[in-house]
């Protein structure tokens, strides 16, 4: 066992959570689950595996992850989502890691899946994130979407061998629904931060990202799934700026958890 706490946030993850927990228990005896009111067997599965399970209302990705960090036994945190499963190479690398220096964070590669297919190219094929860190130095930033870590100056970044297997989406409908939800959250985040929708953001940025990931990063080599990822990413990137434009035109004061979105816009997408 490694002096690391694994923190997982969940909601209705019964179809995947057992895989994440089983691998996490090969790393440490301290697995902390922060559940946002699951109505399936997620909590039961976690408790039967002897994880420490806490229920917390949804205050955003960062807030719920930080709650897990506070409740962890160890200062070193491996923060993962329920659909992310450490592979054997990563577990082995963790077992050999010297964790004496709190001023280091570890960047971990992702292997992302579209259904049962591993995506090797495009943006998904180059995915990596810092997920192992010491809580005395690092916390998640308070953001409604695409949460990031607040890493102070002087902290060194190192790469860790192995991968987190990321079971990103089950199928095209799952991808669509998740993308619409992220577009909603991003529009709110941008509006609250004073970011504005422009012609470049609405039309040129999505096209540039398509060319970069589908052509130059060889996304086309992933076949049907590569095309689906590239084309839907363009569509939903544009959607978040349409939603942002809608907020600008409404000229209303938006609370952090409340953003009106025209259902007709969502129906179009």
Descriptive key words:
269 residues, 9 helices, alpha/beta, nine-stranded mixed β-sheet, two-stranded antiparallel sheet
How does the SSE layout of this entry go?
Elements: E1 4-10, H1 17-24, E2 31-35, H2 42-48, E3 52-55, H3 61-71, E4 76-81, E5 84-86, H4 88-95, E6 104-114, E7 117-118, H5 122-125, E8 128-134, E9 139-140, E10 149-150, E11 156-169, H6 172-192, H7 199-216, H8 223-250, H9 263-268
Parallel strand pairs: 1-2, 1-4, 2-3, 6-11
Antiparallel strand pairs: 4-8, 5-11, 6-7, 6-8, 9-10
Helix pairs in contact: 6-8, 7-8
Report, as a whole number of angstroms, the end-to-end distance: 47 Å
Contiguous low-pLDDT stretches (5 residues minimum) are 253-269
Largest sheet, in brief, is:
9 strands, mixed
Number of strands: 11
Averaged pLDDT: 90
Structural class: alpha/beta
Fraction of residues in β-strands: 15-25%
Rg over CA atoms, rounded to whole Å, is: 19 Å
- Specify the number of helices: 9
* Global geometry: globular
Helicity range: 40-55%
What order do the helices and strands follow?
EHEHEHEEHEEHEEEEHHHH
Give structural notes:
It is a single chain. With 269 residues, the chain is an alpha/beta fold. The protein contains 9 helices and 11 strands. The protein has helices at 17-24, 42-48, 61-71, 88-95, 122-125, 172-192, 199-216, 223-250, 263-268, and strands at 4-10, 31-35, 52-55, 76-81, 84-86, 104-114, 117-118, 128-134, 139-140, 149-150, 156-169. The strands form 2 sheets. Strands 1, 2, 3, 4, 5, 6, 7, 8 and 11 form a 9-stranded mixed beta sheet that branches. Strands 9-10 form a two-stranded antiparallel sheet. Strand 6 (104-114) and strand 7 form a beta hairpin. It is globular and about 50 Å long. The termini are far apart.
